[in-house]
Design a protein that fits this description.
alpha/beta, TIM Barrel, 8-stranded parallel beta barrel, 13 helices, 14% strand, disordered N terminus, oxidoreductase activity, acting on paired donors, with incorporation or reduction of molecular oxygen, Luciferase-like_dom, Luciferase-like monooxygenase, Bact_Lucif_Oxidored
Length: 345
């Protein structure tokens, strides 16, 4: 790929609001706001917050509230959900909440939507109650949201106020080919969770691009790839910091997610071979190293995937190291060009 006359690649942040060991959600949220303010200065485009429930390691159970907190403390950054798990919520309530945010922070709110529960099945039952099978209604619920946000809904019996007429941009999130088909059919931008589900990335991208139908929202396919990034001054320092991420994912594999742990000298003795294999498979699209290493590896990733945007999640124990990682990533990504339009379609 040549870099002549191409704009730099768009880059953004996914924040899981990780809770550090011996820390509190209050401190987590303060760190999130500081990170958002820092990445805004660094030229990041979006700052998205996830929805997870019943996890001692993650504080982002109410992304709508956090979006307002982050948007209120920043001025230009687009802030949104990565994502709101739509089967957990009534579409009207989501439209009203996001419409309220879009009214308070016009032109800055994104709505990323997923269909997973964001937790275990027992917790999902507690959240969804009689709507436990609501995932099957995901396509219909997205279309209902689009209707609530449209000006044409002004004559409907049920209206989202505020929200109506705001056309809040919707993104389909996914980790499988099912979501690729849906995003393509609806003509919506597609964000793939390759930071924990790398296996179906390439099949999903091919399905999305081949089946994409232009819509009022989007004329051509647009892909965001979420990846893990840990950057430091040297490869060795980055690998050391990344042991916190590996411990975090090991807890997920074991079904016992724990607060984010400090880095360790070695993962030996912390995991069994089968667990190591599972963690490394989940973290296949993790970019760990110095700025030069990150730039080289991400350049190859962009060349292979032709994604339009990189959304980075950085789970390291030290807040200062996390901010610095995003600084190094921004510097690295400014040297990677946006894929040409004809390669994206």
């Amino acid at each position: 790929m040549t870099t002549d006359s191409l704009a730099p690649l768009t880059f953004s942040v996914l924040d899981l609001a990780p809770i550090n060991a011996n820390s509190t959600p209050t401190e987590t949220f303060r760190r999130s706001l500081d990170l958002a303010q820092q990445v805004e200065r660094l030229g990041y485009t979006r700052y998205w917050l996830s929805e997870h429930h019943n996890m001692a390691s993650v504080a982002s159970s109410a992304p709508v509230v956090l979006i307002g907190y982050i948007a209120g403390g920043t001025s230009t950054l687009r802030v949104g959900s990565g994502g709101i798990m739509l089967p957990n919520h009534a579409p009207l309530v989501v439209a009203e909440q996001m419409g309220t945010l879009a009214t308070l922070y016009p032109g800055r709110i994104d709505l990323g939507l997923g269909r997973a529960p964001g937790s275990d099945q027992v917790t999902a039952q507690a959240i969804r109650g009689s709507r436990f099978g609501g995932a099957q209604d995901f396509p219909r619920d997205i279309q209902q949201l689009q209707a609530y946000f449209s000006a044409a809904n002004s004559t409907a019996t049920v209206r989202a106020i505020p929200g109506e007429g705001l056309e809040v941009p919707i993104y389909v999130l996914g980790s499988s080919t099912d979501s690729a088909y849906l995003a393509a059919a609806l003509g919506l931008p597609y964000a793939f969770a390759s930071h924990f589900a790398p296996g179906q990335l390439f099949p999903a991208l091919e399905i999305y691009r081949q089946n994409f139908r232009p819509s009022a929202a989007l004329a051509a396919p647009y892909v965001i790839a979420c990846v893990n990034v840990v950057a430091a001054d040297t490869d060795a320092q980055a690998q050391h910091l990344a042991t916190s991420l590996k411990q975090f994912m090991l807890g997920v594999i074991k079904g016992r997610p724990a607060p984010l742990q400090p880095p360790v000298e070695s993962m030996a003795g912390l995991w069994e071979p089968a667990q190591q294999y599972a963690v490394e498979q989940m973290l296949a699209y993790s970019f760990i190293g110095s700025k030069a290493t990150i730039q080289q590896d991400l350049q190859q990733f962009v060349d292979e995937t032709q994604v339009n945007e990189i959304m980075a999640v950085t789970n390291v124990f030290s807040h200062e190291a996390r901010v610095y990682s995003y600084q190094l990533l921004a510097e690295a990504l400014r040297g990677i060009p946006q894929p040409r339009a004809e390669l994206v379609g």
